[in-house]
Amino acid sequence: MAPPVLSLVLPSETGRVLSIQSHTVQVLPIPFADFWVNFLVCLVAEKLEKLEALLRPRLARRPVMDRTIIYPWTVLESRIKVKRYPTFKGQVLNGQQLWELVEGLEANELLYYTHLLTGYIGSVSFLSTVLEVVNKLRSVNPKLTYVCDPVMGDEGKLYVPQELVAVYREKVVPVASMLTPNQFEAELLTNSRIESEKDGREACNLLHAAGPSMVVITSININGNLLLIGSHQKEKGLPAEQFKIVIPKIPAYFTGTGDLTTALLLGWSNKYPDNLEKAAELAVSSLQALLRRTISDYKSAGHDPKSTSLEIRLIQSQDDIRNPEIKFRAERYT
After folding, report:
1. Where are the bilayer-spanning segments (predicted)?
2. N or C end of the chain: which has fewer CB within 10 A?
């Protein structure tokens, strides 16, 4: 039997989001990181009560899971202790299995989406099929916004097969609407080194020329300073509006910050489609509030935040997701 994948349909007045990632099966009712990406999108859209979950190995053969299974589970998350096991069993979903799920969506007349969100993808087969999914969804809605977090590695190290880099660079980037790479991933996609703010801005321009109108390099380490650099090219051929946000360094390691950042950027850019600066300010301010709450909770429980990877306190931080106080401002480049 094929491993399950989580695809969430989030109906609302403003849109529907389909999230796709390939994962090893884990000992949780749903893939944990995937779920939180979509849960955050729901919160930002303030449509959590309308969440429909499509979670099954063979979607076409089984009915849509009742949302009452999902929402109480999220509310009770603060009582769940996520046990870490030394080994995991299962498979990474391949392209054929993904396409079967898409056929299930089509059979249930669930192919209209305003947004497609992709994160970690572990094989060329799966990534190639994602491109087919993009074409399929755009045949139904030509205005589909494709938000791609090109998860490939960090700090000079790849954690996906090398052959995925070329597929991202040559085939995925041209069809994406928004890209959210980190510094290393932006370097891979542009075949360039980013050693200054100017380099970061130029990398954004190179990516605009290849396809996406919105690029957010979510973390760039320049001379010991951590920055986010955003770029929005509102019309082809015109200069992009570019900005930076200085991000404080927190001496701890968190699980899922990349997923969290992309989910928040998707949610806030949907609310402010012509103002990527504001969307980024809200996303960064929300993220920092969540991280600080997480550290505070671990310290209160007597744990050293530097000793282990920290699970982000999402349920406890719903107000910081819905209505973050903007504490981190964008500085526009001129």
Report:
1. none
2. C
Q: Are residues 98 and 243 in the same domain?
A: no
DSSP 155-209: TTEE-S-THHHHHIIIIIGGG-SEE---HHHHHHHHT----SHHHHHHHHHHHHH
The model's pTM: 0.80
> How high is the pLDDT of residue 108?
86
pLDDT of 12 > 90? The answer is no
* CATH code of residue 184: 3.40.1190.20
Question: Is residue 259 annotated as part of the catalytic site, yes or no?
Answer: yes
Q: What share of the chain is helix, strand, coil (3-state, %, to 5)?
A: 45, 20, 40
pLDDT digits (tens, 9 = 90+) for 106-160: 998 888 988 899 988 989 999 999 999 999 999 999 999 999 999 999 989 998 9
55: domain range?
Answer: 1-77+87-146
Q: Which residue among the candidates 259, 274, 297, 304 is catalytic per the annotation?
A: 259
